[in-house]
């Protein structure tokens, strides 16, 4: 399956992409731990079936020192023992915030309460924006049919500076 459109080489898409990237950089620079950010983005990308984003976030997390065991268990985090309580709260928020159409209530009060136990307001704001942005990014990967497998870790590191 060939990609339908290259959003990185299209002039208009690249212009919008720079603004999109600026929001992502602000989230990355927040006090929300970067390893947690990668786990959240990986989980949402798995749910949304974005091969490009699963590839990217798996490889970037591994390059940053995340273990293979934890990366393999993200999809089954509820049935595994390798995630902390804050990570579990963030992964629950990511799932509920990603599956809005599947859960008429959106993010449950119970999940929100768990998130409030482990994160301050700035971190929660970063987490909410992170879930929104990765869901948008997943659409930018799935709609034009970007394929996973070719991503090289650190490709977007220059954007963070």
From TrEMBL:
Highest rank taxon of the organism: Bacteria
GO molecular function: peroxiredoxin activity
InterPro entries on file: AhpD-like (IPR029032), AhpD_core (IPR004675), CMD-like (IPR003779)
Alphabetized Pfam families for the sequence: CMD
Domain Carboxymuconolactone decarboxylase-like per the UniProt entry, residue ranges: 20-96
Key words, A-Z: Oxidoreductase, Peroxidase
Name of the protein this chain belongs to: AhpD family alkylhydroperoxidase
């Amino acid at each position: 399956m060939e990609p339908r459109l290259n959003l990185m080489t299209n002039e208009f898409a690249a212009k919008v992409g720079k603004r999109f990237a600026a929001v992502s950089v602000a989230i990355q620079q927040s006090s929300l731990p970067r390893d947690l950010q990668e786990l959240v983005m990986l989980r949402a990308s798995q749910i949304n079936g974005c091969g490009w984003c699963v590839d990217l976030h798996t490889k970037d997390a591994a390059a940053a020192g995340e273990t293979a065991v934890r990366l393999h268990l993200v999809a089954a985090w509820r049935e595994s023992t390798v995630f902390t309580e804050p990570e579990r709260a963030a992964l629950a928020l990511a799932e509920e915030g990603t599956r809005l159409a599947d859960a008429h209530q959106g993010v449950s009060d119970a999940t929100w309460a768990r998130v409030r136990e482990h994160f301050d307001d700035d971190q929660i704001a970063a987490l909410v924006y992170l879930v929104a942005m990765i869901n948008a990014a997943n659409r930018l990967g799935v709609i034009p049919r970007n394929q996973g497998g070719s991503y090289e870790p650190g490709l977007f590191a220059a954007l963070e500076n």
